[in-house]
Amino acid sequence: MHSMARRLRNAAGDNVRDLPDHEALVRSIRRWESGRIASLSERYRLLFCRALGVSESDLFSEAAPTPRPPTASHDIEAMSSFRGADRRVGGGHLYATVLGYLERDVAPRLFSGSDGTTAFVAAAAFTEMAGWMAHDAGQDDAAEHHFSRALDLVGVG
C-alpha cells in the first residue's frame, strides 16, 4: 500500500500537492482494493495507469471503449494483462479489478449456455487468481472462499 501511494504521488508530478497526505492516500487505496469504493475518479484512474505503466483499458476493463465479445481469446488476453500487472505491482493492487472482470465479463456467460464449459474454466481461473490477490492483500478469509469456489467451478468445467 505504501509503495503504491508513493507511486501515485510520483505519477502526480507537479500536482502532488493536490493529493491527500500519504496516510490518507494509503487508506483510500485500501478501500478501493477491498471493493469498498466502487469506482475511482477519472483523475485517480489516470494516476494509477501512469504509476503502473499500463493503459486504462488494461487496468480498468470496464473503461474499454468498445466491449469485446466474450471469447476464450478475450479471457486469455485479460489473464495475460492481469498477470503482467501483478508481476509489476503485486496482485493486491488489482484484486478489485479482477473481481470486476469476473462479475462483468465471466459470470453472465455461466448461465447463457452459449459458451459451453469455456466459461466455467475461465471463471475457475479468474477466481483462483482473485484468491491469490486476496491473499496478497492480507484477506485470507476471502482468499479461502475464492479457492473453494475455483475448485467447484473447475469441477463443472
TrEMBL record:
Protein name in UniProt: XRE family transcriptional regulator
Lineage, top ranks: Bacteria, Bacillati, Actinomycetota, Actinomycetes, Streptosporangiales
